[in-house]
Amino acid sequence: MSNKSLRLCFLDIDGVVNSDAWFDSSKLDASILGLSDGEFMLCALEHHIDPAAIRLVNELITDSGATVILSSSWRHSFTIKSFNEFMQGKGGATFAVMDFTPKRILNEKLGRGGQIQAYLDFCKNTGVNVESFVIIDDVNEMGNLEKFLVLTDSKIGITKADVAKAHKILDGEV
Length: 174
Prior knowledge:
The protein is an alpha/beta fold and about 170 residues long. It has one domain (about 5-170): Rossmann fold. Helices cover about 40% and strands about 20% of the residues. It contains seven helices and seven strands; from the N terminus they run E-H-H-H-H-E-H-E-E-E-H-E-E-H. Strands 3-2-1-6-7 form a five-stranded parallel beta sheet, sandwiched between helices. Strands 4-5 form a two-stranded antiparallel ribbon. A hairpin with a 2-residue loop joins strand 4 (about 105) and strand 5 (about 110). It is globular and about 50 Å long. The chain starts with a strand and ends with a helix. Mean pLDDT is about 85; it is low at about 40-45.
């Protein structure tokens, strides 16, 4: 892996592949129609994923050749394998997450930008060449990494314009 150049996509979930619009949509209502409260609670997570948003992320990852690193708080609830199984089986993802950003460095709790920087530092220190990277998140707590951020609107989630901006960042145009 150390001889390979990687393009990385640090991906958040809430506010990116789901949104206020998704939770208020008739498509979500139709997907849970007829479920009891108990049945809904058993499969609630699968309804948190907007298929249209996943298609946009699929397009970005396929077209750019980027490797997905999960930076979302969802990484606390899954293993990489279980997250990929969930996203591919229930979410319709054609991409797979390769890794998670760290939760802590020693005893230091890091914010999202710090977690991403720690991941990038780890890559550099282990000889992994990161050619380019993009961060897709609905919260800007990126510090000096802000220029690599595609800031989504949590009201609507990822858009075609966000995907276009992500391509530009990965291509070094921004």
